[in-house]
């Protein structure tokens, strides 16, 4: 099977709510194909599966891995939002706010930035016309 098939199969497991199974598939894909066009998505979904299981520390570490290994990924804004939220879940609002502030700074016009502002209890600027 090629890397895309492996990725799609893992993603399908994830979508079906089989987080642990999907995580295993994504992890094995990253081991066999460390640098591929789906590696950022795989890391993101691994982190999301940990987040959903309330394994916030594992999620934080996996989001961090995504930032380090795939800094250009289109998943960065979403990962930053979830990373900030994970810190909130761990009762570390201060660090959560630092991550969310950085998100708003880096991706000011993103949907994730609006959600980050809301989470921090800050006003969301109106849409520019």
> How large is the radius of gyration?
15 Å
- Report the sheet-strand fraction: under 5%
* Helix-strand string: HHHHHHH
Please state the overall shape, judged from the principal axes of the Cα atoms: globular
Largest sheet: none
Helix-and-strand structural type: mainly alpha
**Straight-line N-to-C gap:** 47 Å
- Work out the number of β strands: 0
Describe this structure in words.
This protein has helices at about 5-15, 20-30, 40-50, 55-70, 75-90, 95-105, 110-120. The N and C termini lie far apart (about 45 Å). The longest helix has 14 residues, at about 20-30. It has seven helices and no strands.
Write the layout of secondary structure elements.
Layout: H1 3-15, H2 19-32, H3 39-52, H4 56-69, H5 76-89, H6 93-106, H7 111-119
Helix pairs in contact: 1-2, 2-3, 3-4, 4-5, 5-6, 5-7, 6-7
List its traits:
7 helices, mainly alpha, 129 residues, globular
Question: What's this entry about, in short?
Answer:
With 129 residues, the chain is mostly helical. The chain is built from 7 helices and no strands.
